[in-house]
Amino acid sequence: MSISNEISNTPTISLQKKIKNWLRMLMPMAFILPALIFYLVFTIWPIIGTFRLSLFTWDGVSSVMQFVGLKNYATLLSDPLFWESFGHNMIWIVAMVLIPVSLGLIFAWLLSLPGIRGISFFRVTYFMPVVISLVAVGIVWNWIYDPTFGVLDSTLRFFGLNFLALPWLGDPQTVLGAIIVAASWTYYGFCMVIFLSAMQGLDPSYFEAAKLEGCKTWQSFIYITIPLLKNIITLVVLNSLIASFKVFDIVYIMTNGGPFHSSEVIGTYMYSAAFSNSQVGYGSAISIFLALVIVIISVVYMRFAERE
Amino acid sequence: MKKTKTTIAIVLGSSTLLLGLQVLGASGFQGAQKHTTPSIKIKLWDQFTAPADAKVMQTIINNFEKLHPNISITRTAMQDQSMQEVIKPALMSGQGPDLFAYDTGPGYLGVLAKDGQLLNITSYAKANGWYQRFPQWILHTTSINGQLYGLGNEVQALGVYYNKAIFSKYHLAVPKTYGQFLHVAQVLKDHHMVALEVMDKDQWPGFHLESAFYTAIAGRQAVQNVIDLKTKAGWNQPIFAQALNDLRQLVVKGYTNPSPLAVSYDNGNNAFIAGKAAMDLTGSWMVTELYQKMGNKVGFFPLPPKNPSQPDIAPGGLGGAMLISKHTKNPAAVESFLNYMLSNQTSSIWLNDNMIPPNKSAAKAHIKDANPLFKQVVNVIDNPAGMSYSLDVLMPQQVNDVTQNDIQEVLAGTISGQQAVADKENALKQAIASGAYY
Amino acid sequence: MNNTRLTEFKFPSASRVVVYLVLIIFAFISIIPIFWMVLAALKPPAEIASNPFGWPTKLTFENLAQAWTVGKMGQYFLNSVIVAVPRVFGVLILSTLAGYAFAKLKFPGRNKLFLFMLFGLMVPIQAMIIPLYMDMQGLGLINTYWAMILPYYGLSMPFAIFMMRAFFRELPDELMEAARIDGCGNFRALLYVMLPLVLPAISSLLVFEFMWSWNDFLIPLLFVYTDSLRTLPLGLMYFSTQYSTNQSLVAAGVAISTIPILIIYFIFQRKFIHGLTAGALK
Question: How far apart are CA B211 and CA B8, in angstroms?
Fold first, then answer.
């Protein structure tokens, strides 16, 4: 109705202009549309399906699905194990944003300094832990942490530090930290590669100006490089944050959440609900709730990080 | 700029080449196979990922196909855990297997059977003498309300592997009672040996420790009464608490490696293989690997009973079961294959691969050429007194969830055996109330 | 040598030693676990049990050969390539276009739509695997190569677009204006002005996508049943029995299957960066 009114009230020339304006505004959409279509079909649609499942009690195979509304969400809010896992994810986030992201940033910077030889060697070396299949990561880190023959405890004992030679993966106090170290090992190379790509594109004139003003190398890192990489740092930090909320594989492989839930994270908890315990509805509710939490945190972070 | 262009050209060129390859292989994009001769096609998903086991399965398939030229069977192998992820959507979509390997117990087979995904094979089993061919407990494990929904395919026993070289070095004999077992452990400890390697980082080995200790300390009858719901107290009885406390005592007394919760299953077995521990409590599935790596240095005995009047038996269970999908288009052909797969004539093929088919006493008849370790294991399974129960495949998943964490806590000493059995009984009561155990 | 590598900076030799020390220590930390893995692949299986870290008494290529045949790596390798190539290039094209639009073009609802595109990153794949299965089933794609390729044109988008957007945002807006003045449309501005400048990002994304495709386990496991379509990571299953893992074979199999990723990384990190920086800034 309103459209036809508008048309009758405006002269034809300005209508054409309007259409043209509209087209110019919508043209950018053409760049997004192909990705958007695939994204809707292969990601959003399944997520809607997950949300739908979260409203049911379902064992994953029965033809009968019992609609329970938001009951799964209510269960979740009063599930102590869920909140314990949630707390572990929080620790995970802090550690993953601090350790591998800063290591990645520092190495990318060091490797773009002048006069450092063997750059290709270091790049490939730091990236290797990223590409190794997690199955092998699990095996090797299990050797490293083994209390009897593990290289970590053997080394500590060799230096007489027997009190430090702990059962790393078997002690509720140390298990989460031990897995985080292994996970960081597989992740800082990833951060480094992204930061390196960004540093390749930095305009050298900034640094020349800084040099003229008597800046030290490390000062130019803090005052020039980091501000210039603002967008990339946002990317890596937010990605680490989201990945820490979703973490599953490495915990599953290393401890399966044990001993007695002390390394349980939401990912493993959700997995055992959906796949071992045949509570597909509850597992879906965990994921949807988790996604909402991540959305809120991400939006807040993006607002903060991308404010002009 | 020129360099960039050449690189782009190389990349594009090579990707075009690969895309070309892909078009050549385009038939794969249809995902269809074009064998036309046999009129009946059966899809089999089994758990035989290891090459030796896969070979056995393929041999049996080939033999069957020779007998029935109109049937062709294609097998896909995947691990237990993968099967758990795949099977439900696959069955529902109708693209799943006709015959597949799956875990027994209420949380797995039970769920599928209750939801009508499995073919009821009771009448076929009766008509083909399965109730004579297999021991009663085997068929009982895969039955619900007297109806048969699958067939256990491998019998597994839990027991103690021991290093014969270490035993003879300290003049130790195979213990016949739990008291003797403790004596052996004490002697080994006095010589600064790890007597028993306990590895429960992966959580599931805890189930096996629990079953072995319930059998040895509380005895089979006590266990069976709970399984059959014949006692009011259920798991929450002093005798089961005692069993778990005895397990904890092994750690306290220093008979085990110092931190069982930090040791993975593979690493624990490696420690035993390397001679760093004298005994290793696990299942008969380790025969092949241990014999291959240790030769005649390794032997096997059931964890001996605390009460000498109890029989010296081992907990036994099924490694898994073969189930037939309700959606199969050729139920008769699939049933006849399953019948053949575990017929008495294929027993020797399984036994040659150190796997024990569920057929009654088939084992004894065929093990003359087997290695000595496997013979010992078969003797344990063929014990006239029978076998006890491996609990994780019988209990519902809610109970197992509680148990796997509580056994870790017992090993760590953070809860008592009393607490653990009370928790377990609570979980079982809840499972019964929600209809997950019957 | 290289313009962008801050050539003009003074770099005292004392701190250079410190830098090398840090670099070498972390190179050591990065590589030593992998070195143990490779060593495990090269030692007789029995020695893993007694001595997982030490030098083997004798080197053997038995494990590698066995992993190759047991893991059906010859057969699965080609499938992995067939899946990786269209997956990687599809994702690169789709995300470059969209990332560019989100960063440099102005249109109503841009930020909201971007957040919507990010949402997919926030739900774990395990949680949406059952609905996704139904989706693929409805499209009739189960048990085809496409089942391992097409889902990622959606699932990979959040990260890929996010990354491309961040890199396009790094480029000054003046470049767009200059391109406009030269009479370039949005697409020509992307192709001739922006694209050469984000090639390092694209090459990194290529490496990541290739790596994720190469190591992908869950979707090939769930969406493809026929042995002839399976990809490399599924071969790892053949190294385990119900309860235990043959660590020698896993080590060998992983060592073999990792090499292509490292080659891709090596090629794209080196060549693109050098070519780019030499060209674009002159």
Answer: 63
Q: In this structure, which amino acid lies at residue B187? A: V
Gyration radius of chain C's alpha carbons = 23
Q: Strands B321-324, B99-102: parallel, antiparallel or unpaired by DSSP?
A: antiparallel
Shortest distance between the Cα of A164 and any Cα of chain C, in A, equals: 20
Per-residue pLDDT of chain C (282 residues; tens, 9 = 90+): 344 444 444 556 777 888 899 999 999 999 999 999 999 999 988 888 778 888 888 889 999 999 999 999 999 999 999 999 999 999 999 999 999 999 999 888 898 999 999 999 999 998 899 899 989 999 999 999 999 999 999 999 999 999 999 999 988 888 888 888 888 888 888 888 889 889 889 999 999 999 999 999 989 988 998 889 999 999 988 998 878 888 999 999 999 999 999 999 988 877 555 544 444 443
Token readout for C76 is: 């699965």
How would DSSP label each residue in C101-156? Answer: HHHH---TTHHHHHHHHHGGGGS-HHHHHHHHHHHHHHTT-TTSTHHHHHHHHHHT
Q: Supply C102's token pair.
A: 């989100």
Mutate to test the interface with A, among B405, B406, B414, B423 (most CBs of A within 10 A): B405
**Residue C190 gets which letter from DSSP?**
I
Q: Test C272 with B7 for CB contact under 8 angstroms.
A: yes
How far apart are the CA of A28 and the nearest CA of chain B, in angstroms?
26
For chain C, the straight-line distance linking the first and the last C-alpha, in angstroms and rounded, comes to 14
**How many angstroms separate the CA atoms of C106 and A88, rounded?**
40
Provide the H-helix boundaries in chain A.
Answer: 2-9, 12-39, 45-53, 71-77, 80-110, 119-131, 134-145, 151-158, 175-185, 188-200, 204-212, 217-220, 226-228, 230-246, 249-254, 266-271, 280-305
Cα angle A293, A59, B85 (rounded to 5 degrees) comes to 80
SS3 state of residue A141: helix
Q: Which two tokens stand for residue B345?
A: 């004539």
Q: How close, in Å, is residue B59 to chain C by CA atoms?
A: 17
Q: Looking at residue B219, what DSSP letter applies?
A: -
DSSP A54-96: TTEE--SS-S--EE-TTHHHHHHHT-HHHHHHHHHHHHHHHHH
CB A147 within 8 A of CB A165: yes
**Contact of A293 with A90, CB cutoff 8 Å:** no
- Phi first, then psi, for residue A220 (nearest 5°) are -65, -30
**Amino acid, res. A201:** G
List the single residue in C with minimal CA-CA distance to B269. C49
User: H or E segment at B183?
Assistant: helix B178-190
- As a whole number of Å, the end-to-end CA separation of chain A is 40
Residues within 8 A of B (CB atoms), C 36-75 only? 45-46, 48-52, 70
Please, what's the b/e burial string for B118-147 (b: 16 or more CB within 10 A of its CB; e: otherwise)?
bbbbbebbeebebeebbbebbbebbbbeee
DSSP code at position B295: G
Q: Do C122 and A291 touch (CB under 8 A)?
A: yes
* Closest of C236, C246, A277 to residue B77, by C-alpha: C236
What ipTM was reported for this prediction?
0.89
3-state secondary structure of B146: coil
Evaluate whether C213 touches C88 at the Cβ level (below 8 Å). yes
Q: Which residues pair with B151 in a beta bridge?
A: B322
Q: Which residues of A touch B (CB under 8 A)?
A: 59-64, 139, 142-143, 145-149, 167-172, 255-256, 258-261, 272, 275-278
Question: Using a CB-CB distance cutoff of 8 angstroms, which residues of chain B are in contact with residue C50?
Answer: 270, 273-275
